[in-house]
Write a structure and sequence with these properties.
One of its GO terms (cellular component) is membrane. Belongs to the bacterial sugar transferase family. Pfam families: Bac_transf (PF02397), CoA_binding_3 (PF13727). GO terms for molecular function: phosphotransferase activity, for other substituted phosphate groups. There is one protein chain. The protein is α/β, with parallel strands linked by helices and 497 residues long. The chain folds into three domains: 119 residues, no CATH class; 123 residues, NAD(P)-binding Rossmann-like Domain (Rossmann fold), CATH 3.40.50.720; 186 residues, no CATH class. It is 47% helix and 11% strand. The strands form three sheets. The chain has a seven-stranded mixed sheet. It starts with 48 loop residues before the first helix and ends in a 5-residue tail after the last helix.
Length: 497
């Protein structure tokens, strides 16, 4: 798990993907990430408040769907005489249905939603809620336990009312999409963006009116205008009141831009404009995917605020607990390293963290660089001949990494994430390997998906980029727990770091 020891293959030939390379190392004092130009601000969420009442239903706002599901649950609960004495249980049922539906993404509908597409998911959650309600009533008030007939009637009634309410909301939504289409931007290569825009114009029922293509390079004058600068994107947002953004190439290449557009009140969609929809890698085979003018698409969420909070809580609890438990071991390692290898027990080095921000990484020193330049630009390997025996021991069992728990507790790092690297190599690899800069969308970590798949030591930087970005794109708290468990299992059979 040591970044110095993860010798990539710097001489390997990266593939050419056609994107312009992106560096995450900004000048000192500069703001990281995409910024709209100074002057008039882009339309923010506040800018659209005056349109909220008129467009709340027509733009798929969750309130009408929440009312439909909540009203159906309340009606079904109160319609059954056996449940009336238990008003708190009815309220619990309403809350449970809304929570399960929100977790399934039922309040973030597809571009052109249809109630039949959601019917199995809606009914399944209603059935689960009623079964849980029946078990709770039987446990708390056995005399009024729900019969099988009542349970079935409740499920059927609530499902029918909920689906009818959703059908009405979606009918109004589809009607509004045609009458009041949203202005949209397409992000990606100019030719592909114009092809997608033309398809949307041929299908007005999707309610999207493309007004421009955001690309790295300008194209011919035919078709939609191609926007290549922040000023042009800002002008398009303001003049057209853009409400939707369609991304037709890997979205990790446009992270800062997408975050800025989301903050401006835009809904983001990822489109697969090239791969056939029947292939296993297409978004149509992913949960939450949909169709847009025949293209597979899925909604993009760039905020992940709740996920970030859960991840940070896990980091604090685990790193704080481990620091307390291993503090005697840390003192023993420090004392042994001092006696065997002289002063200078702790090794400090600048690394690049989330959004390209530098931080000071802490480790037990296992070798002594000749000077600061060598420390910043030389790849060190785990079996260096000048390394002492005790230093070899620390590396073999990854004990030199334990001090990074303090970096995790401080918030510089996370327990799980892409491994941090020095500024020199981050700048170099960001220019060489597509997707390397995108690894810095999340806090760097002590271990990660790449490490548990053997991408340590003399392995490919390109492969590591792919695993790190896959981890970020599909992040979940359970995935973090699994990676930590697999890392702990790997430490039982150490192979060095």
């Amino acid at each position: 798990m040591t970044a110095e020891s993860t010798v990539p293959s710097p001489g390997g030939q990266p593939r050419e993907y056609g994107f312009s390379p992106v560096s995450v190392i900004p000048p000192r004092g500069a703001d990281e990430g995409f910024r709209f130009p100074a002057g008039q601000r882009p339309p923010s969420a506040r800018h659209f408040v005056r349109h909220l009442a008129r467009h709340s239903v027509s733009r798929g706002a969750p309130l009408p769907l929440l009312l439909a599901d909540g009203g159906a649950a309340l009606l079904a609960g109160l319609a059954l005489t056996e449940v009336r004495p238990h008003a708190p249980l009815v309220a619990a049922m309403v809350l449970a249905v809304l929570t399960l539906s929100a977790h399934a993404g039922l309040y973030r509908p597809a571009p052109v939603p249809a109630v039949l597409d959601e019917l199995p998911v809606v009914c399944a959650r209603i059935a689960v809620t009623w079964c849980a309600l029946a078990a709770l009533v039987a446990a708390l008030v056995p005399d009024t336990a729900l019969s099988a007939r009542t349970l079935a009637a409740g499920c059927v009634l609530q499902s029918a009312v909920s689906c009818a309410g959703r059908a009405a909301v979606y009918w109004w939504l589809r009607r509004a999409l045609v009458l009041r289409p949203s202005a949209a931007l397409v992000i990606g290569p100019a030719a592909t963006g114009r092809r997608v825009a033309a398809a949307l114009m041929r299908h007005p029922r999707y309610g999207l009116r493309p007004v421009g293509v955001v690309a790295d390079q300008a194209a011919g004058s035919d078709g939609l205008p191609v926007l290549t600068t922040g000023e042009e994107v800002q002008r398009a947002l303001i003049q057209n009141s853009v409400r939707a953004v369609l991304v037709v190439e890997p979205r990790r290449e446009h992270g800062p831009l997408l975050r800025a557009l989301a903050e401006a009140g835009c809904t983001l969609w990822q489109l697969d404009a090239d791969s056939p929809s029947h292939t296993a890698d297409s978004p149509s085979h992913k949960a939450g995917s949909s169709r847009l003018a025949g293209f597979s698409c899925e909604r993009i969420d760039v905020s992940r605020r709740h996920g970030n909070l859960a991840k940070r809580l896990l980091d604090i609890v685990v790193s704080g607990t481990l620091l307390l438990l291993v503090s005697p071991l840390l003192l023993m390692c420090a004392a042994a390293l001092r006696l065997s290898d002289g002063p200078g027990v702790v090794f400090r080095q600048e690394r690049i963290g989330k959004d390209g921000r530098p931080f000071t990484l802490l480790k037990f020193r296992t070798h002594r660089p000749v000077d600061a330049h060598e420390a910043a630009t030389r790849w060190s390997v785990a079996d260096e001949r000048e390394m002492g025996r005790f230093c070899h021991f620390l590396r073999r069992f990854s004990l030199d990494e334990l001090l990074q728990l303090w970096n995790v507790l401080r918030g510089d790092m996370s327990l799980v994430g892409p491994r941090p690297e020095r500024p020199y190599f981050v700048g170099k690899f960001s220019q060489t390997y597509p997707g390397y800069a995108a690894r810095h969308r999340m806090r760097t970590g002590i271990t990660g998906l790449a490490q548990i798949h053997g991408l340590r030591g003399d392995t490919s930087i390109e492969d590591r980029c792919r695993f790190d970005n896959a981890y970020i794109d599909n992040w979940s708290l359970w995935q973090d727990i699994c990676i930590l468990l697999r890392t702990a299992a790997a430490l039982v059979r150490p192979t060095g770091s």
